[in-house]
Specification:
Elements: E1 6-10, E2 13-14, H1 21-36, E3 44-47, H2 49-57, H3 66-81, E4 94-100, E5 111-114, H4 120-127, H5 132-150, H6 155-168, H7 179-197, H8 205-219, H9 223-231, E6 240-246, E7 257-262, E8 274-279, H10 285-288, E9 294-295, H11 307-310, H12 312-329, E10 333-340, E11 343-351, H13 356-368, H14 374-380, H15 383-389, E12 393-394, E13 401-405, E14 407-410, E15 413-419, H16 422-430, E16 435-439, H17 447-452, E17 455-458, H18 466-474, E18 477-480, E19 485-488, E20 493-496, E21 499-502, E22 506-510, E23 515-518, E24 523-524, H19 530-542, E25 546-550, H20 554-562, E26 568-572, H21 575-578, H22 582-591, H23 595-619, E27 624-628, H24 642-652, H25 656-666, H26 678-683, H27 685-704, E28 710-715, H28 721-742, E29 749-754, H29 757-761, H30 763-766, E30 772-775, H31 777-785, H32 793-801, H33 818-832, E31 837-840, H34 848-856, E32 861-864, H35 869-883
The structure holds adenosine-5'-diphosphate (ADP) and magnesium ion (MG) (2 copies).
Length: about 900
């Protein structure tokens, strides 16, 4: 007996279950699960993903036993349905559907009505009570889909045929076409297939079946699918399953229909059935934008007849299934259904994609409804999705000229220049431009362009169209089905009435209201909902890691505090030297010949720095603020333009040529490894002295006003404990002096940034005197790999594509290598000083996967940019919930 490759489902029984998604794909697993829980599903079978991998590795061959198992599964379906594939009198037809572990646009599309041929089409008409129109409509759909996806004849050729027949017969809609018209289409289609492929459309139903199965498996390796997997970090070695399922017909007249729905509103999260349907339609008619779909329930924004009004009995059944599925899956579902002559069939269910806003509402509501607990609610929010909530929206009072209104398909505000193709979107975005991709409707080929665009605007399609679903998944603003738009791809413009908007012109789209506006409309910061705050309270109760922010200004500090930052983990002081007149004082200091000269220049800087720190301390009242001493290489401050050189010369009372000579002398070959960080403070102690003075004077000043300050002075870039000790002595001396003079005591710490691999190795020595460590994982990554942060772009993409690296180590911490250094440093440091405070302040502090690691190695806090603070909080809580399941080493 060979292995089991084929899993049957039907008539209340299934070989598979909903848990077997790896093997059966998402679609197949859920078809089995729905069958098991008694939801009406047309019978069929699923061929496992392992067959796909075998097929891909063995040049299109199948493992032994597959053919036999398919034949047996086919028999089962035939006996449930009481007819068979190839029967010419009452043919049993099938759909062949792909279905991977993760829903994946770019894979082969579904083939419907498989099994029809020139003879059985007549049988189908007879079996449908003599409905010839229906039978020929099915047949032409089969040839069109099979021709498109299996035989690879471009879709537009088929569209042309239909358009020609419509024109000739003076018909407008597909539904206006008669049986004879469809016959005409079928014979033209068959000619088309023969001329394009050199072969006739296959008449043998079994040939059709295996042709379609093979096409699904091959499509796993097609470029669109590969790109999609790369964009979404889906592994290439999962494979897809194939689902072969008995057809049910939504196109059997007005008593039949097909539809798609969400069990709750995917944009707002509201607990109301939300979806669209079309009578006398099949497959993707609802989402294809050929006809305008109608709402499932009456809706304020539509006066089209709803399913609830048109077919109340079916609607009630659907409502019961909706409740059944939610109770079973304990999550919002995205479903497909078909009504055949008064019978309801479910064709798909899966966890529905939703906006961040909806995700919070649904999670909170489901806790209230008793479907899930608080921990599960925390797990349900994807950190990346949270990002979406924190994005701006249009200012309410901003002036706007509304051109048109479409469906609010995916919320947010986007401002950009109009482009009309995915390729242009990618190109323009690569040049650093903000673009809005405008299409009639999007398709899986457009994914790259959609990803590159700020927002997406389509003229056709509903809330469940490709554009809408994909945009919501990407967290991207989208207005869909804006019917007033006349899009002209050739002329590269769109018209709304008389108004013409050309490629390159600016528009603004509001994915929350559906408005399309001309020009750039002003945006404002996000408003966070009550649901957000409720869930984040649970998050804060759950997590152990503290979350701080990287902020250099009082403004950033305030934003971060609103996002829940519990202090500043990194305040960079170099920005304080670049602005306005400060850069001149700084240049004077660098270019001065003597200590005296330097001190004179530093004196000018002192009050400015002090003011900056006062502002930050006030904004962070009651919370710790980590201030890093000057870090960048001096040459970054050097004057280049002749005017600047002259100005410096004047204030230094030196000749311009002398200034130029000094500047030249300071140029370094490798500044990142040069005279920077603590090395500056050691060679020019007066710089560190001035900075310490500014910090402590500011701290004392605000402390006198009743503000609680906790300065933590951080010495950057140390590689030996001596570097630390020398600078610590200076800071402590100045701090005590200032406090004595000001007659105020403030609590403070002196610690160091750990960003050189050597510092990790000698962390025990450093910890003898350092009061805290903060990992600067950007530099630590740079120095551990020996990759320049500024130049690695050239090869990193290739490295990731060819699998040398799993991902960009500057975005997500390299746990295997850099992570080891972090862990070692923590162990050595805490070995000497068990109370050593340890945090991280690189970009990685806001990366969910890295946050999990930092939690696991026992850091006290992470620090990240203000907008990522909520993401880090959530990731920290999820790390606690994951802890019981696995440690990072097991992954
Ligand atoms: P996708 O993964 O793109 O959603 P599906 O396999 O779900 O593709 O199918 C595409 C369309 O065909 C859907 O509208 C689906 O409901 C419909 N369909 C699939 N199988 C059947 C069937 N057995 N009977 C009727 N319609 C079907
Ligand atoms: Mg599809
Ligand atoms: Mg589907």
């Amino acid at each position: 007996m060979s292995d089991k490759y084929v899993y049957s489902f039907g008539a209340g029984k299934a070989d598979g279950t909903g848990k077997m998604r790896d093997l059966l794909g998402g679609k197949g697993a859920n078809l089995a699960e729905m069958t098991r829980i008694g939801v009406p599903v047309p019978p069929g079978f699923t061929i496992g993903t392992d067959v796909c991998l075998y097929y891909s590795r063995h040049h299109g061959r199948y493992p032994g036993g597959v053919k036999r198992q398919v034949a047996a599964a086919l028999k089962k379906v035939e006996s449930i349905m009481g007819t068979s594939l190839g029967d010419t009198g009452d043919p049993l037809l099938f759909s062949v559907r792909s279905g991977a572990r993760f829903s994946m646009p770019g894979m082969m599309d579904t083939v419907l009505n498989l099994g029809l041929n020139d003879r059985s089409v007549k049988g189908l008409a007879a079996a449908a009570g003599g409905d010839e129109r229906f039978a020929w409509d099915c047949y032409r759909r089969l040839i069109q889909m099979y021709g498109g996806v299996v035989l690879e004849v471009e879709g537009e050729h088929f569209e042309e045929v239909i358009a020609k027949v419509k024109k000739k017969r003076k018909k407008k809609l597909d539904t206006d076409l008669t049986a004879d018209n469809w016959k005409e289409v079928v014979s033209a289609y068959k000619k088309l297939i023969r001329s394009r492929t050199g072969r006739a459309f296959p008449q043998d139903p079994h040939d059709q079946l295996w042709g379609a199965i093979g096409a699904v498996f091959s499509s796993w390796d097609n470029p669109r699918a590969v790109t999609y997997r790369e964009l979404n970090s889906i592994p290439h070695d999962l494979g897809t399953a194939v689902n072969v399922q008995a057809m049910v017909y939504g196109n059997m007249g007005e008593g039949s229909a097909t539809g798609v729905a969400f069990t709750r509103n995917p944009a707002t999260g509201e607990n109301l059935f939300y979806g669209e349907w079309l009578p006398n339609a099949q497959g993707e008619d609802v989402v294809a934008g050929i006809r305008t779909p109608m709402p499932i329930r009456p809706r304020a924004d539509s006066d089209l007849p709803s399913l609830k009004e048109q077919m109340p009995a079916i609607y009630d059944k659907l409502e019961r299934i909706r409740a059944r599925l939610e109770k079973h899956y304990r999550d919002m579902q995205d479903i497909e259904f078909t009504i055949q002559g008064g019978h309801l069939w479910m064709l798909q269910t899966r966890t529905g994609k939703r906006t961040a806003h909806a995700a919070f509402k649904i999670a909170i509501d489901m806790v209230k409804e008793g479907l899930i607990d608080q921990e599960e609610a925390i797990r349900r929010i994807e950190p990346a999705q949270l990002d979406q909530l924190l994005h701006p929206s249009f200012k309410e009072k901003a002036e706007r000229t509304v051109l048109a209104r479409g469906l609010p398909a995916s919320p947010g505000a986007a401002v950009g220049q109009v482009v009309f193709s995915a390729a242009d979107a990618e190109k323009w975005a690569a040049d650093g431009r903000d673009v809005i991709l405008v299409r009639l409707e999007t398709s899986p080929e457009d994914i790259g362009g959609m990803d590159a665009a700020r927002g997406i605007l389509t003229a056709r399609g509903g809330m469940t169209s490709h554009a809408a679903v994909v945009a919501r998944g990407m967290g991207k603003c989208c207005v869909a089905g804006c019917e007033a738009l006349e899009v002209d791809y050739k002329k590269k413009h769109f018209k709304v009435g008389k108004k013409v908007v050309k490629q390159g012109q600016w528009i603004s789209i509001d994915g929350t209201s559906g408005e399309v506006m001309s020009g750039k409309v002003e945006t404002s910061d996000p408003e966070l909902s009550g649901d957000y705050h409720t869930l984040m309270k649970w998050v804060d109760k759950t997590r152990r890691l503290k979350v701080r922010t990287n902020a250099d200004t009082p403004e950033d500090s305030r934003v971060a505090r609103n996002f829940g930052a519990e202090g500043i983990g990194l305040c960079r002081t170099e920005h304080m030297f670049f602005e306005g007149e400060r850069i001149n004082a700084m240049r004077e200091m660098i270019l001065a010949d003597t200590e005296e000269g330097r001190r004179a220049a530093l004196k000018k800087l002192l009050p400015m720095q002090r003011r900056d720190f006062e502002g930050i301390f006030k904004a962070m009242d009651g919370l710790p603020v980590t201030i890093r001493l000057l870090d960048p290489p001096l040459h970054e401050f050097l004057p280049h333009e002749e005017d600047a050189v002259k100005a410096i010369a004047k204030s230094l009372k030196a000749k311009p040529s002398e200034v130029r000579r000094r500047a030249k002398a300071l140029v370094e070959f490798n500044p990142m490894l040069g005279h920077r960080g603590c090395r500056l403070g050691i060679t020019y102690p007066e710089i560190s002295e001035m900075q310490a003075r500014a910090i402590f004077e500011a701290a004392c000043n605000v402390s006198k006003k009743g503000i609680k300050v906790f300065p933590e002075v951080m010495i950057p870039l140390i590689g030996t404990e001596h570097e630390f000790n020398i600078l610590q002595d200076i800071i402590v001396r100045v701090a005590e002096q200032v406090m004595k003079r000001k007659k105020v005591k403030v609590k403070y710490l002196v610690g160091t940034m750990i960003e050189i691999p050597r510092a990790c190795l000698v962390a025990d020595k450093v910890a003898e005197r350092a009061e805290f460590f903060s990992y600067g994982t950007n530099d630590l990554t740079q120095m551990t790999y020996g990759y320049s942060r500024d130049d690695s772009g050239r090869f990193l993409t290739d490295y990731i594509e060819s699998g040398v690296l799993r991902g960009d180590p500057f975005q997500s911490l390299d746990i295997e290598g850099v992570g080891q250094l972090v862990e070692l440093g923590v162990k050595l440091g805490r070995g000497i000083n068990p109370k050593l405070k340890v945090g991280v302040c690189g970009e990685h502090g806001g990366d969910p996967e890295s946050v999990t690691f930092f939690h696991n190695v026992g850091l006290d806090y992470v620090s990240c940019s203000p907008y990522r603070v909520p993401i880090a909080r959530l990731a920290a809580a999820q790390a606690v919930l994951e802890e019981s399941r696995a440690t990072w080493r097991d992954r």
